[in-house]
Each structure stands twice: as structure tokens, then as C-alpha cells.
Amino acid sequence: CLKRIGAQCDGRAQNPSEVDMKGWPGEPQMAYDELMARDAAAAAEGAPITQVIFDFGNVLLYWDPEAVMIPRYSQRLVDGFLDNDISSFYDVNDLMDAGASLEEGIAYVLEHKGEPWASMMRYYVDNFRDSLTGVVTGARVLIDDLHAAGIGVWGLSNWQQDLYQIADRDCDLLGMLDGKVVSGQVRMRKPNRDIYEYALHSFGIRARDSVFIDDKAMNIVGANQAGIRGIRFRDPRKLRACLIAA
What we know:
41% of the residues lie in helices and 13% in strands.
């Protein structure tokens, strides 16, 4: 991995057409489960990794907003709600992740998209707990194994501050981390460089010793710009292989 940045850790290249482009608007193309060291992070190529920083949603905890909506709404409405062009769902998540309140997020949908999307957003945040559908396969054991190997294990996640409290209360996995930075609490968010630098300072660790793991390509790009190598996560076995190789 360290010698062939951009190659799959298991030696197989990934077809760009296989990359999942759903979710937040503006996602760049990037293969999964490979060590990325571009931009400022290129200076860290070959350095041993002694600190691992995890995103939370769909990296440590499964997050599925559709699971919240299914009991109340038709599939047609659910599909519309999760289409940013129709409902601004992802735009509102960005605003709330950066520090906006839940009421401000709902008001934004009402102003820009109207009903039924604003009412659906309120239903979503009121029932947010149902979007957290479990621990990502292998995450608990991976954290235990990293700790046993003497590796620092940290969290850096985009999350609206009130919704994060639900996860922090209900998901003991987050308590296994050595420290956490949550965007809504510090009013900065990925992929902007400032939150990565804030996290490094808060944790007392160096960029060149660290790797950041996230399921969104744009956040790996942001980490690289802050000097942190990154892995776009999808497969637990391949992630473990990447970390062992590094």
C-alpha cells in the first residue's frame, strides 16, 4: 500500500464505474479500501501509522435515513426525500453538521422546498434514533485490536450536535475511542481543512503518523489536504489489510 499509492491493497484495481456516487452532491470519484496519500499527505508516504481516526456514520455505526421513513411514508416519497434536488436533504445535513440547529434545518427545507419535505424532515429528526441500525461489521473488534497493538484510536465525524447526543447515549462503541471531535459541536465540518487540523491539535497527534477512514471520498480529499493519509471505507477485511500493511 505504502509503495503503490492508488493501487488496491489486495492488488486488484477497481473499475471507476463500481464507485458508489450516491449521497452528498459533489462526491469525487475514488476507489474504496485503498490508502490515499495525495496533496500534502504525499509527504507522509512510507511513514508508519500509529494513529487511526475514524468517521462514525457507515464506518463505525450503520446510518440509514431510509429506515426512519419507511414506517410512515410511501417509497415514492422516501425516494424524493433522499433526493437532494427534490428535498435538499443533504444540503440541510451539511448546514446542521456545521452548527445549525434542528429547527433551522427544518426551516431551510420549508423555505427552499416547501411541503411535504419540511414535515418529513421534522419526522426524520424526531425519529433519528431509528436511522442508527447497528455497529458496522468488524468495527468493535478492529478498535480492540488497534488498542492492543498500541495504536491511538480517535473519532472525527460530521454530525448535528443534538442528533449526535442520541448516538453517544445509545452506542457504547463510541466510548471506546481515545477522543472525539464532532462537527456540530465545534462549528466546523469536513471536508474543510480546519476541522482536521483542529482534531489533530485536540488529540495531540501528528498528521504524518495518522490515517483517516471515511466512507465519503470528499472527506478523504480533505484529510489529504491537511496532510493526513486516508482510506475510503467499504469492506472490513480490506480495511484491516490496509491497516496491517501500513
